[in-house]
Amino acid sequence: MHDPDVAGGLVRLEHVLDLIESSITEWRLVLFAGIARKESDLDVLALENDVRDSRNGLSFTPRSLALLAKEIDQIVDCELRGYASKEVQGAGAEPVVIVRAFDSSEWTVEADESKIRIQRNGILE
């Protein structure tokens, strides 16, 4: 996923999250390195350490992840796993969507299309 209309082709996490159907009830941030927006109070080093020290990733509601995404200027490296309510229960739960990013320009979204819909070209499929 690449946005040629954005300076340098950067795609922000908040834009990617907008493309994913809202049936996700929990997100887990399992890998993160990034840069906060200039006006943000986000302590990126603390977030990176918390993610690294977490066993199964840091847990976020869709709302809390959306708020975090607004604080991030650029993703250096990231992996998010999204779970629907029944998938979250129990150990070994499988995510219905995995979002990976490298340098805010290269994004992949893998989804179980039987359980979730992703917008493509502005259309929810």
Q: Tell me the total number of β-strands.
A: 7
Order of strands in the sheet with most strands? 2-1-3-4-5
Helix and strand string, N-terminal first?
HEHEHEHEEEE
- Strand content bin: 25-35%
Rough shape? globular
The main β sheet shows up as:
5 strands, antiparallel
Précis, in short:
The chain has 125 residues and is an alpha+beta fold.
Description:
The chain has 125 residues and is of the alpha+beta class. It has one domain (7-124). 23% of the residues lie in helices and 34% in strands. The chain contains four helices and seven strands. It has a five-stranded antiparallel β-sheet with strand order 2-1-3-4-5. A two-stranded antiparallel sheet has the order 6-7. The longest helix is centred in the middle third of the chain and has 10 residues, at 44-53. It is globular and about 40 Å long. The relative contact order is 0.25. Mean pLDDT is 82; it is low at 1-7.
Describe the secondary structure blueprint for this structure:
Blueprint: H1 13-17, E1 26-36, H2 44-53, E2 58-60, H3 62-71, E3 72-83, H4 85-88, E4 97-102, E5 106-111, E6 119-120, E7 123-124
Antiparallel strand pairs: 1-2, 1-3, 3-4, 4-5, 6-7
What attributes does this structure have?
125 residues; alpha+beta; five-stranded antiparallel beta sheet; 4 helices; 23% helix; 34% strand; globular
